[in-house]
Design brief:
The protein is an all-beta fold. It is built from one helix and 24 strands. The strands form seven sheets. The chain has a four-stranded antiparallel β-sheet with strand order 3-24-23-22, with no helix packed on it. Strand 11 and strand 12 form a beta hairpin. The longest helix is centred in the first third of the chain and has 9 residues. The two termini are about 40 Å apart. InterPro entries: 6-blade_b-propeller_TolB-like.
Length: about 300
C-alpha cells in the first residue's frame, strides 16, 4: 500500500572530476569517541560506518609455555619485523636494522637452527624452499614492500604510501587497493576481508577485499601503537600493541576486545590454530615467549 505523499522521481547524476580523490577519502574515516559520531572527510551524503563500543580493558589469564627461546642472536639495536610458525613447527623471525638484517629459524626447543640474511632494499618478494631454504623465485614490487602475508595461494603486500597489492605465486597482480598512507606497513587478510593497523593514530582498519570499502575501524584509549596481526580459528583478530605493552584480541565485527598477554613493546605475533599457541616477540627481541590460549577464550 503506497503512502499518499510518496511519488516516483528520476535522478540524473554526473561523476565528479575528483571522484578518485573522493573514493580515497572514503576509505579512511575518523570516529569522534565523545559522541560516537562518524566523520568522512570532504564527503557529503548519508554514508554510514560502524562505530566502536568501549570495552573494559580486562587482562585475561593465559598460560605461558616452558619454551625458552635463545635470544642471544638478536643485537641490541635490532628491530623485529615479523614472526611466523612454519609447517614443520619451527619459528621464523625476521630482523631489520642498519646492522641486523637476518631471518632466524628457531626449533621447537627455542634454539636457533638456521640464520639467513635478508635484503629489503631490493624492492622484491623472495620465495624460499622450506626444507633447504634455497631461493625458489622472486617477485619484483618496484617499490618498498613493508608488509607481507600469504593465504590461500595469494600474497597481500603493503607498498608503503602507495597501495595494498594482492599477488599470486607468479607475481601476477590479482587486485590493487590504493592506500596513500605513510605508515602502511602491517597488513593481513582472511576470507574476503583485509586489515591494516595504523600505529601513529592507534587504530585498526577492516576492509572488504571485494570492493575495498571500509567495514569498520577500531580504536580505544588503552590500545596504543598497534603493529602486527593474526587470526584465531573464529576469525577474531590478535593485535600486538607495542606502545601499550600488550596483545589484544578484537572480535571479528570490531565491536569488542580484550587484553590477552602483557609484554613490554610487543610487536610481532603469530597464532598457531592447530596447537592453539600464541607466539609473541618484542620489538628488540629482548622478550620472546609462547602462550597456550584455551579454545573457549577466543570467542566473544
Amino acid at each position: 500500500m503506497k503512502e499518499p505523499s510518496m511519488q516516483e522521481m528520476r535522478i540524473k547524476a554526473k561523476m565528479s572530476d575528483n571522484f578518485k580523490q573522493i573514493v580515497s577519502d572514503l576509505i579512511d574515516v575518523t570516529i569522534e569517541r565523545d559522541n560516537s559520531k562518524v566523520i568522512m572527510k570532504d564527503v557529503e551524503g548519508s554514508f554510514t560506518c560502524q562505530s566502536v563500543k568501549d570495552n573494559e580493558a580486562e587482562v585475561s589469564v593465559v598460560q605461558k609455555t616452558k619454551t625458552e627461546f635463545n635470544k642471544s642472536r638478536f643485537k641490541g639495536n635490532t628491530n623485529i619485523s615479523c614472526l611466523v610458525a612454519l609447517p614443520s613447527g619451527d619459528i621464523a623471525v625476521t630482523c631489520y636494522d642498519s646492522e641486523d638484517r637476518q631471518l632466524l629459524i628457531f626449533d621447537i626447543t627455542g634454539s636457533v637452527k638456521k640464520r639467513i640474511f635478508s635484503f629489503p632494499e631490493l624492492w622484491c618478494i623472495k620465495i624460499y624452499w622450506l626444507k633447504t631454504f634455497k631461493e625458489f623465485t622472486e617477485i619484483q614490487t618496484n617499490e618498498e614492500c613493508w608488509g607481507l602475508q600469504f593465504e590461500d595461494g595469494i600474497f597481500i603486500a603493503a607498498i608503503r604510501n602507495v597501495e595494498i597489492l594482492f599477488l599470486d605465486l607468479s607475481g601476477n597482480i590479482q587486485k590493487t587497493f590504493p592506500m596513500k598512507q605513510k605508515n602502511l606497513a602491517y597488513v593481513s587478510k582472511r576470507k574476503g576481508r583485509h586489515f591494516r593497523t595504523e600505529f601513529q593514530n592507534h587504530s585498526v582498519h577492516c576492509y572488504s577485499s571485494t570492493n575495498g570499502r571500509k567495514e569498520w575501524q577500531f580504536s580505544h584509549p588503552s590500545v596504543l601503537g598497534p603493529r602486527n596481526m593474526c587470526f584465531n580459528a573464529e576469525g577474531n583478530l590478535f593485535v600486538a600493541c607495542q606502545d601499550s605493552n600488550c596483545v589484544i584480541l578484537i572480535s571479528s565485527d570490531g565491536e569488542h576486545f580484550k587484553r590477552v598477554v602483557e609484554m613490554s613493546c610487543a610487536k610481532c605475533i603469530y597464532f598457531d590454530v592447530k596447537t592453539s599457541i600464541l607466539f609473541v616477540c618484542s620489538v628488540n627481541g629482548k622478550e620472546m615467549a609462547s602462550f597456550n590460549i584455551s579454545k573457549g577464550f577466543g570467542s566473544f
